[in-house]
Write a structure and sequence with these properties.
By secondary structure, the protein is an alpha/beta fold. It folds into 2 domains: 146 residues, Aldolase class I (TIM Barrel, Alpha-Beta Barrel); 90 residues, no CATH class. Helix content is 30%, strand content 18%. The chain is built from 8 helices and 8 strands. The strands form 2 sheets. Strands 5-4-3-2-1-6 form a 6-stranded parallel beta sheet, covered by helices on one side. α2 runs parallel beside α3. The longest helix is centred in the first third of the chain and has 14 residues. It is globular.
Length: 269
């Protein structure tokens, strides 16, 4: 059996916030078109031809997923494959009013869905009310607090500018191995267009043109390759531990040094 721990569909790169340390560089760049239900189905169909099982399937964003006007439809598409994943995870920055249609869809599939509520303290009262609303409705929630004392993960990190550090292969391997994506997530496989990357730095860097396109660093689910080839490509990327993005990253993801952690979601003026 070939399985992945985590697989994310980036359904939107639009956001209502302008976070200075956004790891997706959303405020600084023009958003791509939102993922359609048809695109979602095409990518998931291709993914589950390759993967027998996925532990956690994410509908997430480089931006705010709850801004997506078809989020309810995307959930329904994902649930067509519910026998192939353990849970469906949704993310929100807790500043968006939940539409009735979306709530109904979440409740209809509550046994499979977990909603992560990130609380940044941007709209403290609204954020608390959103959490209360979901919990009172019986929605399974995970709350990550990113303001005040005892912040989740001690805050955010700065991934640095898009530049090569000229690292050796051993140094890049070390960056890869000590990254939280490797250490804690066992890969944050993610895609917006069918090209599946190990991490957000790799995906965003290449699609925005900040990192040279390197087919060795991603699996193209929609390419005319065999299932076996694609499976081996997933395995090779993890085993090689040498992404182009690792030489164009601060390497602070997952650091235990609190001095290298910063206040989350500080807004650009």
């Amino acid at each position: 059996m070939f399985s992945l721990n985590k697989f994310s569909l980036i359904i939107t790169t639009r956001c209502n916030l302008r976070c200075k340390l956004c790891c997706e560089y959303v405020p600084q760049n023009k958003p791509f078109a939102d993922m359609t239900a048809e695109e979602c189905d095409r990518i998931l169909s291709a993914a589950f031809e390759v993967c027998d099982h996925i532990n956690t399937l994410h509908l997430t964003g480089g931006g705010e997923p709850f801004l997506h006007p078809q989020l309810s439809e995307l959930i329904k598409v994902a649930m067509k494959y519910s026998d192939k994943f353990d849970r469906l995870m949704l993310f929100t920055n807790s500043t968006i009013t939940v539409k009735d249609e979306l709530l109904d869809t979440i409740l209809q599939n509550r046994e499979k869905i977990l909603v992560q509520l990130s609380q940044y303290g941007v709209k403290p009262e609204f954020e608390q009310n959103i959490a209360k609303f979901f919990l009172e409705k019986g929605v399974n929630c995970k709350i990550e607090k990113y303001y005040g004392d005892n912040q989740s993960f001690d805050g955010w990190v700065d991934f640095g500018p898009w530049k090569s550090y000229g690292r050796t292969k051993d140094e890049i391997n070390s960056i890869f191995d000590n990254c939280a994506v490797t250490r804690d997530m066992h890969g944050n496989w993610r895609t917006r267009d069918g090209k599946v990357h190990w991490c957000s730095r790799s995906m965003r860097g290449m699609e925005l043109g900040f990192i040279p396109d390197n087919p060795d660093d991603y699996v193209d689910l929609l390419a005319d390759d065999t299932v076996e080839y694609k499976r081996n490509k997933f395995k090779k990327i993890e085993a090689d531990r040498c992404l182009t993005a690792c030489d164009m990253c601060s390497g602070e993801q997952g650091t235990y040094d609190k001095s290298k952690r910063f206040k989350a979601a500080e807004q650009e003026i």
